[in-house]
């Protein structure tokens, strides 16, 4: 079993979650910005609906989720 602790990591600017290097990104890791196609498709949207803020992230930021 391999440990993934040594893999590079980035923070997704949409969902603010960390994501790790994947083999499919090995040729263009420097240009990868989003953790998933869902985040890539929602990158510029501003939600005006109801939102809830989840407290208690390790990095001190708060995450906003739609309900």
Automatic annotation (TrEMBL):
Residues 56-67 have a biased composition (Basic and acidic residues). Residues 43-67 are annotated as: Disordered. InterPro entries: UCP037205. Pfam families: DUF2256 (PF10013). This is DUF2256 domain-containing protein. It comes from Robiginitalea biformata (strain ATCC BAA-864 / DSM 15991 / KCTC 12146 / HTCC2501). The lineage of its organism: Bacteria, Pseudomonadati, Bacteroidota, Flavobacteriia, Flavobacteriales.
